[in-house]
Model the fold of this input.
Amino acid sequence: MSISVVPTNFRYARPLSDIEIRPGYSHVMFNEALAWLIDEVAFCPHARSGAGGALSIYPSAAWSASISMASLRSWLQPYSGYQTANTYHLGDCIWHPVTKWERSAKRVVVGGYRFNPAATWPLFVEDGQQWINRDLGSRRSSSSF
Done:
């Protein structure tokens, strides 16, 4: 029999659908999607057979394993925008929240999921690397990708 320890600050992931998709490109919509990425998603360079992938920091009904960066881009495509050439840009360009998140100093980088009930939640550092503190049950009890 296993005993489950629920942290006092436990919460589920905020669904991406909480961010309203507005007609046309909106900087507000883009910034909300970027904030969602920074708060809810971690990058794991070892995921997806070493190609790198995204992990949900908090438990989520939508995804419980790593997803590819291409899938993450597809999910967030409605929040991207297109800007035509102007005085600041020599050519037309596409603005995508995943691209901005990938370059952000606030992006969380982890080694994967690892369960440690004595450690902080949702993230902790062990063996010189940051981990998402989650018990994945029988599927995977402690692993990096």
